[in-house]
């Protein structure tokens, strides 16, 4: 059924950014369906304008940036809201401090979120918007709800929120927001374990996805030399790169011709480069740095195996992309990943931080081309059937439409 045109503000922490291209895809797909999406971003893009793709440039031109206006613009926004809604403004300010408890650092962090929330509210008033959905900035939305009676919804990705729910105020968000969208059944279980059952109807599973047509299967190589292993992700400790290096070292010592390409960057890069050098792996590891969508797609086309040894994830979109390209994947059995990859059906799953299991799984794929071929084809079919961007975004659009079609189940603000 056609979805009525709905105007929604989308708040993201940084937009556009290479690490969260799925947000851009979701926004543009919602617009294609018929939604009027206006984007606000806390921070400016992670790259200069000339390095953005044409889609990203188009998005940047139309995005409202909360921090780039400076202190003068923020002060003016606060003064306007204080004069027009003094009780709501002071209520939000007190609530922000209360959320911090007795921790000075947490209180200061929440005051910053409150400052951003007031600027967001002022922009929404000017744009005539009454609903904001967010990725990665849900505390700002929680505080904005205190200042202005708006519809609010958030995508809760995990895993940070689930590892420290008090820090991220998940109980308060369950009570106050209209919708908490999770991207996996695992996420729904984590959220519903935190709050009373009266709020469980607000928690809805709506999976992310990729466009299978944008990630066509790459040519299968029966006996490549060297084997190309690809890993895509931010270079941080929780991504498990050191475990992957240990597994790779085992394969090299066994005399296997392997090469690991890492697409991404981050604070752990110097340490990873040192570790690779100390292990004698520099001839076997290539740090590709940050890559845009075209660059990552090119790496998929030459990869034989995709490895993701993370300790903490939601459901990584890069896994969906690799699977759509018919690459045999090895990933850790954590959070929502087993919902995406069925072990020995769509890929291989190993326990986190277990370099023996990871090395064995990689060796198995190196030695069994028929297995690589079977897993790759099943992986693409899994994405087509369950993680198609168009289908999953349409389902999410219907959920957003329910919020606008009924006031039933709206959260009562705790402010």
Description of the molecule:
Helices cover 47% and strands 16% of the residues. It is an alpha/beta fold and 415 residues long. It folds into two domains: 7-209 and 389-405, Glycogen Phosphorylase B (Rossmann fold, 3-Layer(aba) Sandwich); 212-386, Glycogen Phosphorylase B (Rossmann fold), CATH 3.40.50.2000. Helix 10 links the parallel strand 8 and strand 9. Helix 3 (70-84) crosses helix 4 and helix 5 packs across helix 6. It starts with 6 loop residues before the first strand and ends in a 10-residue tail after the last helix.
Give the CATH class of the largest domain. Alpha Beta
CATH topology of the largest domain: Rossmann fold
Main sheet: strands, sense, barrel:
7 strands, parallel
* Average pLDDT reading: 94
DSSP helix fraction: 40-55%
- Anisotropy-based shape: elongated
Poorly predicted ranges: 406-415
């Amino acid at each position: 059924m056609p979805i009525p045109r709905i105007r929604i503000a989308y708040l993201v922490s940084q937009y556009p950014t290479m690490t969260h291209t799925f947000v851009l895809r979701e926004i543009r797909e919602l617009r294609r369906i018929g939604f009027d999406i206006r984007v606000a971003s806390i921070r400016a893009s992670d790259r200069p304008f000339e390095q953005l793709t044409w889609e990203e440039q188009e998005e940047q031109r139309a995005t409202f940036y909360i921090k780039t206006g400076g202190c003068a613009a923020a002060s003016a926004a606060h003064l306007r809201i204080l004069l027009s809604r003094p009780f709501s403004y002071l209520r939000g300010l007190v609530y922000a401090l209360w959320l911090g408890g007795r921790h000075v650092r947490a209180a200061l962090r929440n005051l910053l979120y409150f400052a951003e929330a007031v600027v967001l509210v002022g922009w929404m008033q000017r744009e005539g918007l009454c609903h904001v959905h967010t990725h990665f900035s849900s505390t700002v939305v929680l505080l904005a709800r205190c200042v202005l009676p708006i519809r609010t919804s958030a995508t809760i990705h995990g895993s940070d929120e689930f590892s420290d729910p008090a820090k991220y105020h998940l109980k308060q968000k369950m009570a106050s927001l209209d919708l908490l969208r999770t991207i996996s059944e695992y996420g729904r279980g984590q959220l519903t374990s935190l709050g009373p059952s009266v709020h469980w109807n607000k928690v809805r599973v709506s999976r992310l996805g990729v466009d299978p047509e944008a990630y066509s299967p790459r040519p299968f190589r029966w006996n490549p030399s060297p084997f190309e292993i690809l890993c895509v992700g931010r270079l941080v400790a929780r991504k498990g790169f050191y475990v992957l290096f240990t597994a790779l070292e085992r394969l090299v010592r066994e005399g296997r011709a392997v090469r690991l390409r890492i697409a991404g960057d981050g604070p752990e890069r110097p340490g990873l480069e040192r570790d690779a050098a100390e292990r004698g792996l520099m001839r076997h590891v290539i740090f590709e740095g940050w890559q845009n969508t075209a660059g990552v797609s090119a790496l998929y086309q030459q990869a034989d195996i995709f490895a993701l040894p993370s300790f903490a994830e939601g459901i990584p979109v890069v896994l969906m992309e690799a699977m759509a390209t018919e690459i045999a994947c090895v990933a850790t059995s954590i959070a929502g990943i087993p919902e995406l990859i069925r072990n020995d059906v769509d890929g291989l799953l190993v326990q986190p931080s277990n370099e023996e299991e990871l090395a064995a799984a990689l060796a198995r794929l190196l030695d069994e081309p028929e297995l690589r071929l079977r897993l790759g084809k099943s992986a693409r079919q899994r994405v087509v059937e369950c993680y198609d961007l168009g289908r999953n975004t349409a389902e999410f659009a219907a959920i957003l439409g329910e919020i606008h079609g009924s006031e039933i189940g709206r959260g009562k603000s705790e402010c």
